[in-house]
Records
---
Amino acid sequence: MLARVARILVVVAILGLVVTLALAFRRDPHDIRTGTVNKPAPAFTLQRLDGSGRVSLADYSGKVVVVNFFASWCLPCIQENPALVRVYERYRSSDVVILGINYQETRENGLAYVQRMGISWTSVADDDGRVALSYGVFGPPETFFIGPDGVIAGRHIGPIDEETLVTAIEKLRGQAATR
Amino acid sequence: MNRRVLIAIAVLALAGALAFAARPHETTADDRVAQITAELRCPVCQGLSVKDSTSETARQMRDLVAQRVREGKTDAEIEAEFRAAYGDWIFLSPPLASWTGLVWLVPVAVLAAGLALVTGRLRSTGVPQPSAPSTTEVAALRERVAREEAAEG
């Protein structure tokens, strides 16, 4: 009797493992829903990379905010930059804001990168990495989508493409329009 | 006598050393930072704690923990701050209070299943009983005993 129960337990354990793995492999590895997703975006105030004042997340209250953590030493950041530039041009006169947060490097290097890559949106410096830690950043590039309600609706780890950006932005704009 | 005295002195010295090592002492801020960062997973490393990693991210996390300790935050408050950002993943040991804590039950479950399997197997097969000797074997044994007794005279 006990042996039968043990056999059933082993079969159940193996089935559980198979189901868990099957579900895990179906998930998009760029979309890790831990920590800050579906929670209010941590507030911050940071110095602009060019030193021309400070920027707070609260300044963009009621707007769709795309927060992009980047660094000049990060090759995937260079790879994703053309998509960000195109999306910025597409939404520049709308209620969508792109905010770049320079991460783990000197302001001089960050500013040189921004100028070299044709980045026109606001870029700020996270000198001590505290903002990145409060967002649960693993490493650049990482992109967070914050809705007009100030809640982080999604996060993308790794280089992002134009389609993913537009889809996430339009979803948030749609939600804002129906509110 | 001398040997007994020496053993007594050695035992007393050992007990004194143990008592000294186990004495209650105040945890310093550095001790707390070390304890907390030893439990935090470095996000950019492979299985390293924040305490042991030399990465820039781990350094920033150590600085943050040290600042929070200086601000008078409790260990639980500091851990909650990291949990809010990274989830339970940030802890090297899965917390017992969350569903990931179920992982601690796995060894117990495996052991119980193994015991049940072995017990069931033993019960079904039973302990082998020695069979009774046949008449021929008894006769041969008696003959051997008689032979040995005759030889001994």
---
Amino acid sequence: MKFGVVVFPGSNCDADAYHAFKDALGQPTTYLWHKDHDLRDVDCVVLPGGFSYGDYLRSGAIARFSPLMQEVREFADKGGLVIGICNGFQVLLELNLLPGAMLRNKKLKFLCQYVTIRIENDRTRFTHRGTKGRILRIPIAHFDGNWYAPPETLKEVEDGGQVVFRYCDPVGALTEESNVNGSLHSIAGLINKRGNVLGLMPHPERAVESILGSVDGLVVLQSMIERMS
Amino acid sequence: MKVRILVSLKDSVLDPQGQTVRNALHTLGYSSVQDVRQGKVFEVDLSGVDKAEAERLVPEIAGKVLANMVIEKYSWQILEG
């Protein structure tokens, strides 16, 4: 499976994602420059973390208008696999490929730490190797990760099984404390209705080698590589 | 023509930055301050645009780019021209 990691000015987890897919998982992987109009026949587009365009205006707001994003939108509309991690998630929200928007973290602090998240839906192309309720220890690093949507959208997302990950405490309970950024319903990751576009604030690509402290992100990356049964 | 566009969070959306500013003002003794909402100001120069055209153009720019209408609202005014 061929992966394409999009590079915007200000992306800083592009190399992490490239390393995870190429070196840790042994998949053909290429960088995709945001100014190009060429997805290079990749099977999956990765929108990496970072601070595209310096987070000017709003996180992800300018990257959304990059030339390559037209192709990414068409690719997603045709059912192509797209994952947005952290800033990539913010871009997907700005693109309206996923519902809602990001507010500043509830305590107005940049958060750079490990969190525990719970798999809420294991019937997706990003989580089918995991099981519902499994707890993953994965790092976060963001300022604007406080997911918000109006009540009708929140209901739709919940009823449709679009919530894929929630922040939880180490034993899996949803507490105010474990919901570090204040997201509605502790939502840490969302999938679109069609099931081919995932956005999440935690960084699974930074948790794929034990030397780096956790391998819990592997379940997400390996799910993407393997066919869903 | 110069226009000023004000973008702020919708009333239904919690504004922790505004609350922090309000709390700081309370600490300084400004007890009459009830609430503070924080926003962004854009001053945009438009050339060759009359009032009617601005009334079409500004909401388009504001709704599409300057504000995220899921969480924000905007208002605008003509400053000169």
---
Amino acid sequence: MYPNETRIYHAILTGVGVLLIFMAISIITIIRYHRKKTAFERKRMKADINGLEKERKRIATDLHDDFGASLSAIKLRLQCLEPDNESNIVLAQQCQIYIDEAMNKLRHISFNIMPQILHRNGLTAALNELIDMLIPATGVKVNYSFEAEPNDIEKRVHIYRIVQEIMNNIIRHSKATIVILTIKRMKEKILLHIHDNGIGFDKKFLSKIKGEGLRNITARVELLNAKMYLETEMDKGVDYLIEIPEQ
Amino acid sequence: MNGYLINILLNHSIIVPAIIGVVRFKSVAHSYYPFIFLIWLGLINETLSLILIYTIRSNAVNSNIYVLIEYLIVLVQFYKWNSSFIRRYYFFACLGLLVWIADNVIINAINGNNSIFRIFYSFIIVFFSIDQINKLIIFERKSLIRNAIFLICGTFFIYYSCKAFVEVFNAFDLGLSNQFNRSVFMVLYFANVFSNIVYSIAILCIPTKQEFTMPY
């Protein structure tokens, strides 16, 4: 190389070096701020969902304890009516039937908002009850087995909500007749697997889906530090697999 | 060790990601296959170039064909990552083909060291990489440092920027000595080694199945 060329070459190397340093700094700052943004979003999401669950629990308790108790009291008072008039007895019996219906609906609503059984008896019991409620109402056949139960109550609530949301999606949109639902433990992970034989959907149009269902599911999956795999094609059903770390 | 041998070794550093690609091929998500094919194709081209340099003293023809295939595979890879906007990829593929024909058939001969297409495709790949990185910054919910797409696109960004820069010296006949041109190309060789190291890490980070996420 001629001396002049050497100087140009050194200038080029310096220029390239400076540019590479700038690129490296850009990439490092991108990673740093992305990490901060993700942590912030996660914190916000956790606060939102926990707030929502707290509020649901409060409403469910109020409905069950206050409103339910009031209805029971009315029913008892009706039973105390003197049978002096035949028409009054019929009226009282009709009222009791309406009150029973109202109490059933109340139990149903309260269960949907926050199943007390989830806190009392655990996830398996709550899911059994959820399925028992869904099967007669929809005609969908659910083959299920639950072999794992997380210890953490927050985890139980998230898993329960995920299953509830997926089952709601299946009932509302999939036209499925059979659902397979399993929860099992594998290598320090809880595997939640749900498969339906419905109409499926094209993942390309996912961004156009307006419902909040899938968004809620992914938010909870994220809070569980879990991984979710969704396989679907038109007319081939939907397969959800969620890997939840136990720790 | 002479300079020529160092160049051969630096260029053959692609063997590392290629081997990792072979080992992990069956377990990685299908959407990353074009990238692994690209790595294998790169290794084949490097080996072919070495053989041709020793036999017919020129690797220009295979290199000119290789850059076109490389460009098309990278476009397929970007399409696999963003399955919408297929027309955009068709447009850039056709445009690339036209530029390649202009560069290697109309303006220059295919057996020459042609740079117009190389500069063009470097710009397009850098453009798509920046777009992909920005998309990840906005939509990705997990750490970027172990994200295979981020590692690959970040490396594309650095490597093809260097490539576009270096090819400019070749595109304009500046009347500089061969030694100067070789030294300038050394920048690309080192960028190549760096890229191959990151590609190896990226292949190790490719998920076995594509995780499902929704944008915020």
---
Amino acid sequence: MEERVQTSVGGVAAALDYDAELMLRVKEGDGASFGVLLEKHRTSVVHFLYRMVQNAAVAEELAQEVFLRVYRSRATYEPTAKFTTWLFRIATHLALNSLRDNKNERLQDRLDDDSSELPVRQLSDSRPTVEQNMVYEAKLQEVRRAIAALPEKQRAAVLMHKYEEMEYSQIATVLNCSDSAVKSLLFRAYEALRARLAHMA
Amino acid sequence: MRCPIETGEGPELLLAFSSRRLDPDRTAALEGHIAECGPCAEFVLAQRSVSDALDSWEPPLVSSDFDRRLYQRIDQQVPWWDFLVRPFRPLSGARWAPVAAAAGLMIAVGLWVGHPEQTPAPPRTAQVEALPPEQAADALQEMQVMQEFSNLIHTDAPEPRM
């Protein structure tokens, strides 16, 4: 789908991203457009939240709240920024609140015993041996611990930069800080991750 | 090319290079430099290891009932009148609402002006008329006679089989 289109909805002359145009349609009462937005961003929002809070059930609950807020805000929506910036701003806000509310509780429990939430691995041609599985689980655990050890804002910045491939300016808008602050957050975060994970090559 | 670590643009440039987000010209220039610069090569190698490690972290699949639960929550917050309007949703958009409202208003005014005397009369309430006592006694007597006559006729007929 074309990412940037000339909109004809709502009389807005400026070129908007396609998602913003869909959201303007939702504003006009088109429920199907909300379905399209949900289909398009559901997975990335849930995955971002999962990597932030590292709990599948909490991540889904937060993601539900994100989309609920999007729907509730439809009447007042104005496309002043990219739709994904707005979406991830809501998601990040909820994730940071959740982490602050549950500090020192849930996270440690999850990191200690979380085998039930490990994803099903996609296997191409052969089943991994028990040893390969153990190595994979150990690596995964190390990655999760390294991310969880980052300060919350650094974690959010890295996840948006790495998995959502956002620009510095977009991350800055989401985190409500300057571009240079985002660069600083990312450099410090990646420095910490290199120290912990570089040996995994 | 000067070493980006010495010029101060190192982390940003090397991070972009490691994430493969640099344009082709700068990528080619930096590749040439990295081939000769130990610290830059070390940075890129470590950063790509981090990137690969992060790539291996796959979150679990989203629950299949995620959308259903979401729409359920949305419906719980929708006012009751929205359910009434919903079947007409394609017509109730912002574009059609003023037109439909104006048309409805004009029809209503036209009907009222054309036939003001034809306003419907208020519905009559049900009334039970009170009968005089002697008329009621006659009616009961007639019913009794009819009952006796009916019994007389049915005594000749065979009894119904169960």
